[in-house]
């Protein structure tokens, strides 16, 4: 029996168990439903407005954008949060004390966060398509686009979340990076077309994966005519693949290095010291 | 400073030849910045032995254990754990260790049995004909007394139950060597007794070598084949509870009643004193009590002596007494 294979299989099972747990506690259910409910309300009120220069519903344009942006944001932030929290509570150290436990843990995290992101997307999309008109993948090609954008987008964002997560030893400091991430989502043309932003802001948006996930989802779910209102007047599939692929490669190369460094530093006394510090802050 | 030629309390595991020690620590040193935490720790452990590490807070107990667990790099010294340098231990080596740390708060959403089953599954490839890994989960849950709580969420367990789960996780892979850092903190007397039975079971039946730290000297005395006292970054005493008590504190306390009055006398030779007492007063002596120094007395005396700067002298005297 190959120990690596056993650990990967244990990791997949672990991810599955943790996804199931996320469906049975109030906190996680709130996180699933509340933001998506808010987005749906926003889209509902946007349904009569039109995309500038067309007579297509702005609400319908927003649904795929939010789907892409939400996937990026969810994958990044959930990964980051769970890593910092589970480092503090000793889950990571526990994984380190078990043979190949670190491998199983990471596989489990990827499965868990990817699973939770997909559930979140379903909660948004299923009521969304009934709420606004004109959103549907047209033909097998569109489904294929949806699939590769989804997979590549998750592979781009999950390691990035893990890298950020391992940089913060204290979950209470994660807020420092939450604000820039939210700002990034705002500049990525999710809620309002990026073409209306100043050019320098457009470049910032295009440097990160959030914009490309949104664009990729729009290309899969919206009629082809709407490509005309995007930057360059096209869905830019090649550029989407390039940008998301570059982030994915970067993440897959850097994340293991950063994670290994983080794991090496974990020991009983570091966990105890963080607990001590957390308690002091409460008192 | 090992004790040689002591006929008592040296467990020779049946069928095990005098072989390579499970733990072999020589002149272990640890320095953080310019502070020396460990200044030369030396000790060994044989298979099936239960060792207790005692010492004041900040003496370096946790640092020592973390180095042995492979969670921390040492500054200097030679260390082998199950024949392997823990700084380069691989996963196969890791599978033979069990670790129970001081405080865990992890996996609070998991259910007890589910978590043990999951963590146990990593050990499956390391099962051998001699050691079946992992432990059968239902049996393990029963051994640590969590059967009524097997389907409870970990976050809902009481402090003592949580600790028992920690121990269960530590032994789920049937380790050859188990590290326990203050395992009974927060236990009520009954849970403590059950835990002691478990430790005896592990060392007697499963041949598990155990290194544990505790602040409970009574517990140390009950569990340990050998007690190591760590102070000021090195081991200042190494021996069974009796050996430590007999050698360190020379004074025993003799109490008796005579003619309705209570007497107390401290003496280095209690036997001779009592004999003389009876020779002189015969039947007049009642309620006789002889109290040898407890481990607590010994421990306090050793540590106090060490801290008052005469550590080196105490050490030499102690070594001398052992030869």
UniProtKB/TrEMBL annotation, chain A:
It is found in: Membrane. The chain crosses the membrane at residues 29-46, 66-85, 106-130, 142-164, 176-194, 241-259. Keywords: Membrane, Transmembrane, Transmembrane helix. The keyword 4Fe-4S does not apply. Residues 71-253 form the ABC-2 type transporter transmembrane domain. It comes from the Bacteria. It is a multi-pass membrane protein. The keyword Transcription regulation does not apply. PANTHER family: TRANSPORT PERMEASE YVFS-RELATED. This is ABC transporter permease. The lineage of its organism: Bacteria, Bacillati, Actinomycetota, Actinomycetes, Micromonosporales.
Automatic annotation (TrEMBL), chain B:
Keywords: Antibiotic resistance, ATP-binding, Nucleotide-binding, Transport. Residues 23-257 form the ABC transporter domain. The keyword Transport applies. The keyword ATP-binding applies. It is a peripheral membrane protein. SUPFAM superfamilies: P-loop containing nucleoside triphosphate hydrolases. PANTHER family: ABC TRANSPORTER ATP-BINDING PROTEIN, ABC TRANSPORTER ATP-BINDING PROTEIN NATA. This is ABC transporter ATP-binding protein. The lineage of its organism: Bacteria, Bacillati, Actinomycetota, Actinomycetes, Micromonosporales.
């Amino acid at each position: 029996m190959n120990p690596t294979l056993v650990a990967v299989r244990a990791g997949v099972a672990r991810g599955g168990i943790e996804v199931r747990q996320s469906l049975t506690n109030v906190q996680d259910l709130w996180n699933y439903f509340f933001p998506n409910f808010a987005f749906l309300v926003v889209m509902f009120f946007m349904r009569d407005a039109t995309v500038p220069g067309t007579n297509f519903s702005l609400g319908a344009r927003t649904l795929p954008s939010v789907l892409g942006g939400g996937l990026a944001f969810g994958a990044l932030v959930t990964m980051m949060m769970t890593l910092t929290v589970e480092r503090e509570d000793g889950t990571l150290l526990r994984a380190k004390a078990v043979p190949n436990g670190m491998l199983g843990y990471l596989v489990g995290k990827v499965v868990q966060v990817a699973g939770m992101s997909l559930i979140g997307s379903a909660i948004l999309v299923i009521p969304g398509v009934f709420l606004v008109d004109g959103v549907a993948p047209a033909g097998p090609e569109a489904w294929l686009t949806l699939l590769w954008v989804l997979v590549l987008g998750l592979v781009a964002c999950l390691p990035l979340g893990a890298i950020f997560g391992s940089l913060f030893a204290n979950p209470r400091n994660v807020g420092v990076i939450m604000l820039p991430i939210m700002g990034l989502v705002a500049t990525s043309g999710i809620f309002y077309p990026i073409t209306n932003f100043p050019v320098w802001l457009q470049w910032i948006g295009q440097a990160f994966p959030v914009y490309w996930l949104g664009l990729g989802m729009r290309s899969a779910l919206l009629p082809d005519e709407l490509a005309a209102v995007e930057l360059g007047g096209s869905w830019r599939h090649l550029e989407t693949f390039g940008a998301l692929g570059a982030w994915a490669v970067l993440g897959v190369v850097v994340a293991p290095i950063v994670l290994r460094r983080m794991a090496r530093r974990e020991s009983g006394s570091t966990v105890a010291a963080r607990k001590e510090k957390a308690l002091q802050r409460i008192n | 400073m090992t004790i040689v030629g002591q006929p008592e309390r040296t467990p020779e595991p049946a069928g095990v030849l005098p072989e390579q020690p499970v733990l072999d620590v020589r002149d272990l040193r640890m320095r953080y910045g310019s502070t020396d935490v460990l200044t030369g720790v030396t000790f060994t452990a044989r298979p099936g032995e239960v060792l207790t590490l005692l010492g004041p807070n900040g003496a370096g107990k946790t640092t020592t254990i973390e180095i042995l667990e492979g969670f921390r790099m040492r500054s200097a010294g030679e260390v082998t754990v199950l024949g392997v340098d823990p700084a380069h231990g691989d996963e196969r080596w890791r599978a033979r260790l069990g670790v129970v740390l001081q405080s865990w708060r992890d996996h609070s959403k998991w259910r007890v049995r589910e978590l043990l089953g999951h963590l146990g599954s990593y050990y499956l490839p390391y099962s051998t004909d001699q050691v079946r890994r992992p432990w059968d989960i239902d049996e393990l849950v029963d051994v640590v007394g969590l059967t009524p709580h097997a389907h409870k969420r970990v976050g809902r367990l009481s402090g003592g139950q949580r600790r028992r789960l920690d121990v269960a996780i530590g032994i789920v892979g049937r380790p050859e060597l188990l590290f326990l850092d203050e395992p009974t903190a927060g236990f009520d007397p009954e849970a403590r007794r059950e835990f002691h039975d478990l430790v005896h079971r592990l060392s007697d039946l499963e041949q598990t070598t155990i290194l544990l730290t505790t602040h409970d000297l009574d517990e140390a005395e009950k569990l340990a084949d050998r007690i190591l006292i760590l102070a000021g970054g090195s081991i200042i005493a190494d021996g069974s509870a009796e050996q430590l008590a007999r050698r360190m504190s020379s004074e025993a306390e003799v109490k008796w009643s005579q003619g309705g009055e209570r007497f107390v006398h401290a003496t280095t030779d209690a036997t001779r004193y009592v004999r003389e007492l009876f020779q002189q007063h015969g039947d007049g002596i009642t309620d006789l009590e002889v109290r040898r120094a407890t481990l607590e007395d010994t421990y306090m005396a050793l540590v106090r002596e060490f801290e008052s700067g005469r550590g080196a002298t105490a050490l030499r005297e102690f070594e001398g007494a052992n030869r």
